[in-house]
Amino acid sequence: MTARRKSGTPPTVTALLESEAHVARLTAHAGRLLQLQRQLELALPRQLARLVRVANYRLGKVVIHAANGAVAAKVRQIVPGLVEKYRQNGAEVNEIEIKVQPINPGQAKVAPVSPAVIGERAKQGLTDLARKLPEDAPLRLALERLAAKK
Hints:
The protein has helices at 13-19, 21-43, 46-49, 69-77, 79-88, 120-131, 138-148, and strands at 52-58, 61-66, 95-100. The protein is α+β, with helices and mostly antiparallel strands. The protein folds into two domains: 13-100, DnaA, N-terminal domain (GMP Synthetase, Chain A, domain 3, 2-Layer Sandwich); 115-150.
């Protein structure tokens, strides 16, 4: 299978993968799983979508792995709508099975949270509110610290 094309250039990885029947089936299955995963991600809220993944598809049954029991319970609630979304996108899905499969810590990439920036107008409002409170009030001290942040 290392034959070169007529033009003399080496075959692409895709062409090599598609050349053998069993590898072609595997490649097609992987493509189907990827397509189902993308549809799943579009159907779920972003925070939930990053905690689930399509594990398998066979004979109209999609197996989804959820990071924990709470995520699995939430996804189970929306399974009927999810089946319908898959069907609307051309996938032959009759059943969805949800399994709990914790994600490895290295796989769960949490987006860094950028600190909120307080505008000058908001800082002035916090300062004005703090001035109306007694000087020894814990809320006043907290508001003054918050207003002082850059």
